[in-house]
Predict the structure.
Amino acid sequence: MNPRLEQLHPYPFQKLRELFAGVTPNPDLAPVNLSIGEPKHPTPQFIKDALVAGLGGLANYPITQGSDALRASIAAWAERRYGVKLDPATEVLPVNGSREALFAFAQASVDSSRHGRRVVISPNPFYQIYEGAALLAGARPFFLNTLPENGFRMDWSRVPEDLWEQVNLIYVCSPGNPTGKVMSLAEWKELFELSDRHGFVIAADECYSEIYFEEGAPPLGALTAAQQLGRGLKNLIVFNSLSKRSNVPGLRSGMVAGDADIMKSFLLYRTYHGSAMSPAVQAASIAAWNDEAHVIENRRQYAGKFAAVMPLLQDALAFDAPDAAFYLWARVPGGDDAAFVRGLYEKQHVTVLPGSFLARDAASVNPGKGFVRIALVDSLAACVEAAHRMVAYVGEAA
């Protein structure tokens, strides 16, 4: 087997199962699981209808590039959302969820030759796919801590100057997982200037871009930032997904867009990778990308949960309201996030995720230590109930 597999860390949820080994949660309380970022809102019926209507396509092999209609619907959505005109033929690809594409992109883009660029920079804490993608591509991950004292931003001055010429790829996540931080135009400008100077590729993970709290004021995206700065799409690839936007995590449907030259090479890789999207999924995806009413309703439900839960938790946990996404990134009393999560599960049957499980030790610190990630993905009633139980647990432990 590939020896690089031995470098992979256990996934956070495997660590969570190990943390709970031997623990019997309170049997008098119904479980509430807010540990995983899996949308729980119902899938809109029109998307399911489109999936069924597209089943006739199962009789045909799909092409890796996807149908003209699907790429056109993605490009049209990007123009509505980001104000950017993309060429559906050269700057857009459908993918089987952003997770698959984020992993595959490193395999296609990292130069793992002896004298090649072999460093991949990732935020820390981070979505673990970034690290696994880098390691299995033969690269060395470099973790850039995002800390509360820096506003959870990536501070590029902390990258050693002699490392830049080894950097092949930088993953950024905006809105961020787990912090909900959105990159500003000034931050994008700095990153673009670094890319232009050093020649690395930017992989912008924007899968939470449609979960925000003020209708009509969406978070800034990489495509919009590039246009506003008059830069174009050179060395920029953006990843997005229908999973959170449209409550279809099981559909495994997303999109990649950006630099046409890079997209051409990525398409070649994907042709060999065997990653073509099912025609039925393409039909459902077209319907989802073409509609915004269900997305507005989705945002309304998330905004209602944050409005209800944050006041309940404000005296028990320390946190700032996120810019976007559906996570609360909260500091726990006592600073031991794993012990807090284990005790909360045992006493109150509520599951959240230790922040240290989402990060790596870097620069002598684990930036997730002392935090928990609370995913407000369940119903309003379940999230409010979980908040009351967290307050009760903190009170008992005080």
Observations:
- The chain is about 40% helix and 15% strand.
